[in-house]
Every structure is written in structure tokens, then in C-alpha cells.
Amino acid sequence: MVRRLLLITTLALTACAGTPEPPIEPLPPPIAEANASTSNAPEADHLAASDAGADLPVAPAAPLKLTASAIALPGAQGPVSIDYLVADRPNSRVWVPVGDTGSVDVLDVAAKTFSRVDGFKTAEREMHGKKRTAGPSAAATGDGVVYVGNRATSEVCVVDAKSLKRGKCVKLQSATDGVAYVASVKEVWVTTPHDESITVLDASVPAALKPKTVIKLGGDTEGYAVDEGRGLFFTNLEDKGGTLVVDVKTHKLTSTWNASCGASGPRGIAVDPARGYLFVACTDHVQVLDEAHDGAPLGKLDAGAGVDNLDYLASRGLLYVASGKAATVTIAHAEDGGQLAVVATGATAPGARNAVVDANGTAYVADAAGAQLFILPFAGQ
């Protein structure tokens, strides 16, 4: 009887899980259990319960509870100015631009120690009615280099990804915000919201950027994502709403989608290039849009208040969301059909936001108030 119960339960779970996307490493058990509990669950529960003589259905696995540790940013005392950070997965590093110290702090993931790239200029700026120290505020990994945007000088500077040696900078006409490398056309795209545009730089020589063109979009550009396979660049208009779709070859706006974020506007974006899912951050949830059907809404994830930027680990189908006001991190698996199933959560601190993820699934969240970086390991068990 016991063997029969195990066999039937296994077959039911396998039938419910569907055909998964091909990940680099297996999905963790909680994800498989969550899939089994939400796809044809009544049939699986009936088989397991009737054979065992039980009256209760099989309960789905609860999300894992993650424990955060914190590492102080070198030479910084909170609060500091931190916006975009980036995980350099091939080199096992996390890049944290810190405006107040005029540096980019580079975390060695294995050693959990920081190296600093210094020498970036700073300046006092008024942002959202408050005076803050502006400086390096965004980073993007390129071909053997990392591109760092500096709001204080409206520059994008090149840093060698391995030696961490700072190289040349190119000055833009407007202050930088997000920075993205578009490998298919060898360009760096910089959101420049004060000019309501995207500034495109020629990166055909990775260490020597050159101005190329400016794409006027008529609103405050916020967040970015690139679908290299489809040749699309995505950004939001924070002030007017809407998610913009731009062709990377023609530099033309092709579509405007609505993630229904409300008056506070959309923020960060991430993309699943294999399945064409676009994840748009609203301030208290994430909306999934379908690229193949003109941005049609799919699943939705309630992640708590204070959502800004997102990160997605495509090899495992995992979306990472840090909510500053809720002081939480949520990890969700992107299911077939565009639904998001929560697999893990963790507590951080008020204001901690903008999670990025390394190749192993560990989350890193910037805590500007505490001048530190939260680390939340997630192996998937």
C-alpha cells in the first residue's frame, strides 16, 4: 500500500508539473511542489487522499524563509545615495555605485569582500525636493568592461571588468539614470529622464564610447530591459505611465503598453527572453506582460510597497523583487502561462530596495539608509 501511494503521488505530481523550460540547473523542490499543487491539483489530491484513506487534501509547500546578512559599504556612513546596481555573473561580482563616496564598490561574491573603484566626481543636487549628493549611480556589464553612469557629471565611464581599472568617460547632454549594454548592436543605452529621452552610445570599441544618437520619448524614462533575441529595448514613462517598446536597430518607438500601475507610475523592468515575458514593477506589485500579444497582461505578483528595480535569473526562471517600504525580498518562479509562484521570502530593512541576483541564486539588496548590502542566499532547497 505504501509503495502504491508513493507511486501514484509521484505520477500525479509529474503530470501536474507540465513541461518545464530547460534550465541550466534543476528547479528546487519547493518550485516543483508548488507547480504540482496549482496544476490539476484536485486530481492529485484525490488520488493521494483516497489511497491513504485520509479526508484532507495534500497541502502545497510554503515559501522558504530566507535569512539576510549584511556587509558594510567601505568608507560610507548612512544614509547614502544608491540606485542601480548590477550582478556581473561571469566574474562573480556585484557592482554597487555609491554617489556620496564618489566610488563604485565591487563585491567579490565568494570572498564577501569589497574593492573600490574611486575617482568619480560628486555634486549636490536637488532630487524630489531634497538635497542629495549625486555621483555614480548606475552600472551595466559590457564586453569585458563595466559602464558606470555618473549623475553629477552626466558622464558614462568605462571600467575594466577584471582589473577594475577606470578608463575613459564620455559626457552626455543630460544627466544619466539607467545604463544598459545592448550586445546585438554593440551600443550602450542610457535613460536620460530630464531630457525625456534615451541617449545611445557607440560601444563597437568597448573601452572607447562615442555619442551616436538621442531617442526622444516625451516623458521621464525609468527602468530598462533588453530582449536581445527579439531586438527590443524596454523602458517606462514614470510620469505619464506606459511601457515603451523600442526597436534596437532602427531606434524607433514601436509600441506603448499599459501595465496599469496607477498614478505612481511604473518603475523597473526585467525580461524572460525565452518565453517573451516582460516583468514591469509597479510600486507595490509586479505585472507580467506578454511580448507576443502586444503587451497583454498575464500574471501578477503582490510584493509589498516600495518596489523599484527588478532582476531575473533566466536560467532558473526566478524573479527577484525587493520592496523598500515593506522591507522584504520576494523570489517568485515564472510559471508557464506567465503566472508567478512565490518560492521564498526574506526580511531586510526599511528602504532597502533594488535586488540583483548572482549566478547561484543569491540575492543582494542595497540598503542606502544603513550604507550596507544585504545578502540573502537561496540555493533552492
Short description:
The protein is mainly beta and 381 residues long.
Classify the fold: give the CATH topology of the largest domain. Methylamine Dehydrogenase, Chain H
- Percent of residues in helical segments? under 10%
Based on CA inertia axes, which overall geometry fits?
A: globular
Instruction: Calculate the mean pLDDT score and round it.
Output: 87
For the largest sheet, list the strands in their spatial order: 1-28-27-26-25
Total strands: the figure is 31
Largest sheet: 5 strands, mixed
Query: C-alpha Rg, in Å?
Result: 22 Å
Low-confidence stretches at least 5 residues in length (pLDDT < 50)?
1-59
Number of domains: 2
Structural class: mainly beta
CATH class of the largest domain: Mainly Beta
Give me the CATH architecture of the largest domain, please: 7 Propeller
The share of residues in extended strands comes to over 45%
Please give a structural write-up:
With 381 residues, the protein is mainly beta. The protein folds into 2 domains: 2-52, no CATH class; 64-376, YVTN repeat-like/Quinoprotein amine dehydrogenase (Methylamine Dehydrogenase, Chain H, 7 Propeller), CATH 2.130.10.10. The chain is 10% helix and 45% strand. The protein has 3 helices and 31 strands. The strands form 8 sheets. A 5-stranded mixed sheet has the order 1-28-27-26-25. A 4-stranded antiparallel sheet has the order 2-31-30-29, with no helix packed on it. Strand 25 (307-313) and strand 26 (318-323) form a beta hairpin. Helix 1 (2-17) packs antiparallel against helix 3. The two termini are 29 Å apart. Residues 1-59 have low confidence and may be disordered.
